[in-house]
Amino acid sequence: MTVSPNMRSVAATDRSIEAACEYLAAGELVGVPTETVYGLAANALDESAVRKIFAAKGRPDNNPLIVHLPDVAAMRQVVRWPLDPVVMDQFEAIADLWPGPLTIVLPRSERLPDAVTAGQATVAVRIPSHPVMQQLLRRSGLPLAAPSANRSKYVSPTTAQHVVDGLGDRVSMVLDGGACTIGLESTIVALGEQPRLLRPGAITAETLATRWNIPVESLLPVDQRPVVLEAPGMMLQHYSPRTPLLFADPSASVPAGRVGRIAFEPLSPEESKTFAVVRVLSDTGDLNRVGQHLFAAMRELDAMGLDAIVTDTCAAEGVGRAIMDRLKRAACRE
Ligand code: AMP
Ligand code: MG
């Protein structure tokens, strides 16, 4: 973790948002709050600014970025317009889920620098609901390319401090808009002949399938795990803490050493005692709460020098599909 001694986040106010707009217009990077996770933002129309994102994150340049917009009207800046009629119908059936934690992959405009889309013919766009991000998008008038504000492959940030911890010496400013309310990266869906779920999130596959009147299964990759780097968020190892992460198994013994425990609901006192530290993510096992606090718990326990972290699991449906997706990637060591 690179902590820059001088770097601090700045509370989001009219003035600090104005300062962030100036940095962005000048081609610099700003850490920004969204409802999903914190983003590392740059002007999506400025190729050299976009390249700084890849350099700061250590992100491979074949992994395209999500472009954030204030509203549907702004889509014309980055999307090839008009959409073809089939895609337009699919889009209209889900457009009311914006602003929110949903990213839609559509044909790109020629204006967009290749660096944003990793040379692909499509662009991923999102209209976030976070009021600070909304204000920043409107005031700057810029489409903002913003992947998660973490070093590539590490756990996504859900507080301004997480951004400072990981990228503090590589950004001009971090705007603090509070802890993220969703806490998991956006759902990504690609529209086309047949819509496809590229990454599960808080807007569930079930919700999308209902809107399109299709079975959930038809949205999912054939083997649930594409091997092609179509959405490199799907690269298998991703979002990982450095400490080995294991799934709780009641029939197995607790691993040796100092072990941390991530619990989705309160543990019995006897079970708690077997761990060096326990973080309970929800009083009632509410998976939205679990999603909200999961990454912060992973980061906190990862910083404690434990021998292992054991986590609860859940059924991979609804928001649980996104939680299990992130946990499987975090547990994977290849
Ligand atoms: P991040 O914002 O760090 O969560 O990363 C953005 C995610 O969006 C990655 O998983 C990308 O692969 C995905 N993405 C961005 N643009 C596209 C695109 N044109 N087609 C498919 N996936 C995309
Ligand atoms: Mg990311």
From TrEMBL:
GO terms for cellular component: cytoplasm. GO terms for biological process: regulation of translational fidelity; tRNA processing. It catalyses: L-threonine + hydrogencarbonate + ATP = L-threonylcarbamoyladenylate + diphosphate + H2O. ATP binds at residues 59, 63, 148, 156, 199, 239. L-threonine binds at residues 36, 68, 122, 126, 146, 186. GO terms for molecular function: ATP binding; double-stranded RNA binding; L-threonylcarbamoyladenylate synthase; tRNA binding. It is found in: Cytoplasm. Keywords: ATP-binding, Cytoplasm, Nucleotide-binding, Nucleotidyltransferase, Transferase, tRNA processing. Its EC number is 2.7.7.87. Residues 14-203 form the YrdC-like domain. This is Threonylcarbamoyl-AMP synthase. It comes from Rosistilla ulvae. The gene is ywlC.
